[in-house]
Amino acid sequence: MFEFNEVILWLKDNPEWIALGVFGAAFIESFALIGVVIPGVVLLAVISGMAVSTLNVFELVLIAYVASFLADILSFLLGTSISKSIDKLWPFNKYPNLLVQGRTFVKRFGILGVFVGKFIGPIRPLLPLTAGSLGMNFKYFLIVEIFSSFLWALLYTVPGYYAGKSILDSEFNLNWLIAIIIGVVILIIIVRYFNRKYIEE
Hints:
By secondary structure, the chain is mainly α. The protein contains nine helices and no strands.
């Protein structure tokens, strides 16, 4: 939690790095394994609200889109390369039910599942890795990613951007925006903690 606060406050003092912050948050949220433990989507929402001062909404969406797309492609290729030993990789070696759930989801819904799963938080960072490990056709995966990553970027950046814009255009200032979103960060981290406890059980 402390680290997220530090990132947010640092970006507030160094707005020239906000574009990189958007890229990093979108990449973390989408990349295999990292997105399971780090709530990058929360950080992305916060930075999207702060981006009003340095980026227009088109630049914001484009940066998040490219980051998410690259993360998913790399995750897919990683899954392809370690398909025979994926069950020994964390967190699957500690929580084998995650891998079972991911494989079941992909096998049941196929390429449509990859598209829909992009918008389901708990399994989003696992599906590209799982799809790659199962030998899904890369061309089909690529086509789905082109569209799903764009829609994902719109959904997870635009609301935060315009929330930040509306606050900054009113009598509130950036400090209020940061305080409000830090509260949301705390709430989501608590929810994720209990979700993880549920997984362990």
